[in-house]
Specification:
The chain is an alpha+beta fold and about 220 residues long. It has one domain (about 5-210): Hypothetical Protein Pfu-838710-001, CATH 2.40.320.10. It has 4 helices and 10 strands, in the order ββαβββαβββββαα. The radius of gyration is 18 Å and the shape is globular. InterPro entries: CYTH-like_dom_sf, THTPA, ThTPase_euk. GO terms for molecular function: magnesium ion binding; thiamine triphosphate phosphatase activity.
């Protein structure tokens, strides 16, 4: 019988085009944030990997960010309003890649294959500014090295899942992430003055448009 008792990191995010204010401050609009802590700005170098678009078609994104491997596995929602399980353990990422591509990513003798057998598809430099609002909500504003901007409001939560079937584990994840998404929705509605209206465009979509000269 399937039985799971594991912790996983869940992330729910809602994207926005850009900040609607020149500088995000606690009292920059009405109502003011209950609290706002600026975490500063830093540079991010992302290299995204795939193989014949097999991962992106499955809603899986594998990247090396500043030397650290990460995988984000889509758990529902849309581009603007997305939900992910995040993986950072190398072997967990290898198993994820193998599941969706059929590539044998590791063996007992040599360990995990270089780049999990994937190919780089995009290299993007980003200047990221980050704030923590109302203690729990991470607000991120990204400006890419090719001129595109996009932001997101994120919630992350470690979930301890115990279930008798794989399907019920997935149901638990969906329920937790729906509750997280509801919280983000209420947060962004309350502080609508901080976020520019309009449909945001993802960094990879914008990157490939820029590379093809369509921007």
């Amino acid at each position: 019988m399937y039985r799971s008792a594991a912790a996983c990191l869940l992330e729910v995010e809602r994207k926005f085009r850009s900040l609607a204010v020149r500088e995000l401050t606690q009292h920059g609009g009405e109502p003011p944030f209950r609290s706002l802590q600026r975490l500063g700005s830093h540079q991010i170098q992302d290299v995204y990997y795939d193989r014949s678009n097999l991962l992106s078609a499955a809603g899986v994104w594998v990247r090396n960010r500043n030397g650290q491997w990460e995988a984000k596995v889509n758990q529902g929602g849309t581009f603007t309003n997305s939900r992910f399980e995040e993986l950072s353990d190398i072997r967990d990422i290898a198993r994820c890649v193998a599941r969706w591509t059929g590539i044998a990513t590791e063996d007992e003798k040599h360990g995990v294959k270089a780049n999990f057998g994937l190919e780089p598809i995009a290299t993007i430099g980003t200047e990221r500014a980050t704030w923590i609002a109302d203690e729990d909500f991470r607000i991120v504003s990204d400006v890419m090295d090719f001129g595109h901007s996009v932001g997101e409001v994120e919630l992350q939560q470690w979930a301890n899942l115990t279930a008798s079937t794989e399907a019920s584990v997935e149901q638990q994840k969906r329920q937790i992430m729906q509750e997280m998404d509801d919280r983000i929705g209420a947060f962004m509605k309350r502080y609508a003055w901080a976020f520019s209206p309009g449909k945001p465009k993802g960094k990879l979509t914008a990157y490939f448009e820029w590379k093809s000269g369509r921007r």
